[in-house]
Design brief:
Layout: E1 3-7, H1 11-23, E2 27-32, H2 35-45, E3 49-53, H3 61-70, E4 76-81, H4 91-94, E5 99-102, H5 108-115
Parallel strand pairs: 1-2, 1-3, 3-4, 4-5
Helix pairs in contact: 2-3
């Protein structure tokens, strides 16, 4: 069962993402509400996957993804946003993240497709 850290500044989204992912076979091992806490929690919990919102207080998702990569974290990073990937230009590809999923399209199947 893959482990997941959910990072988003909106508690309601974290709760709905947790319910969705747990119902689809993922084990949510933690949550974080800002970029700085995300890095700390990811290094502490060592999840298989970090579901990472782009728009965060403190460090944004792109900065967090790069910091996790530089810190030696083995977690796959999937960026999420209420905006579309095209709105971010080349930033998603340059971040080192595995990929991007719009929040409205979030599902275990969408994550599985990126992990394959």
């Amino acid at each position: 069962m893959p482990t997941v850290l959910i990072v988003d500044d909106h508690p309601a989204f974290r709760a709905s993402a947790r319910r969705l992912l747990e119902s689809e076979g993922y084990a949510v091992v933690g949550e974080a509400g800002d970029g700085y806490d995300a890095v700390e929690r990811a290094l502490q919990l060592d999840p298989d996957l970090v579901l990472l919102d782009i728009q965060l207080p403190g460090q944004n998702g792109f900065e967090v993804a790069r910091e996790l990569q530089q810190s030696g974290s083995n977690a796959a990073v999937v960026l999420v946003s209420s905006r579309e990937e095209a709105d971010y230009g080349t930033k998603v590809a340059e971040s080192g993240a595995l990929g991007f999923i719009a929040k409205g399209d979030l599902s275990g199947t969408a994550i599985d497709a990126l992990l394959e």
